[in-house]
Amino acid sequence: MRLLEPPERLDRFGMDPRFAERLAPVVEFFYSTWWRVQVRGIDAVPAAGPALVVANHGGLVPWDAFVLRHALRREHPAHRELRPLLDDRECALPVVGPAALRAGAVRASPETAGRILAAGEVLGVFPEGSAAARKPWRDRYSLIQFGRGGFVKVALRARAPIVPCAIVGSEEASAGISRTGWLAERLGVPLLAANPALRLAPAALLPLPSRWSLRFGEPIDVAQHPPAAADDPSVVNALAERVRAAIQAMLDEDVASRTSVFL
Q: Does the N-terminal or the C-terminal CB of the chain have fewer CB atoms within 10 Å?
């Protein structure tokens, strides 16, 4: 209902502080009670200055953007504000997209990302973007390529450290039937795995009570490279792959060590 009200006062990146304040108890309920989020290594995010948190993306609905932002505000010693970037498809989702933008998320663009870091803030990036939602169910927590490394270019130009983050639980927060291949896996019929008709995408809008964990890895300092390195594909690709490998290693460990998806 608050989305039907006109914004009271937007900040320069489109957040309505009043709306974010009203939404906070809802996010806290999902964070602490519904998803029971556990956080490790959050001190890896610097207490001050620009930083780029890079995480895996899961499901059709960007619940992880809400959780990552709330974790930094709630658990970090400096209670840092993180602005997650969302692509156009996610911003266009009914209810969730407008709520995310009014609550602090930002429509992704290199210019906006650069301005956020230049202001000394923390930026949250999901390099897989909405393409992660098109991964077959069997490939959850297997990272796809990080595109052309746009997030690395932004970090190099802003001299901002890159902090890898592995999020476990986000994939199962959306009903499996919303993803291609889930029914094939349950029935044991691999031939059905590639049939996109055997899924119910709107089911992803219902958040399931999966147990989440957020794990922050060691920051990757880009200061050894000059800002001009943002135009060097070899440097950009090497750093992007280093970040992707760090996140994948943490995902593999955390998925293997969890005892239950929901308990």
A: N
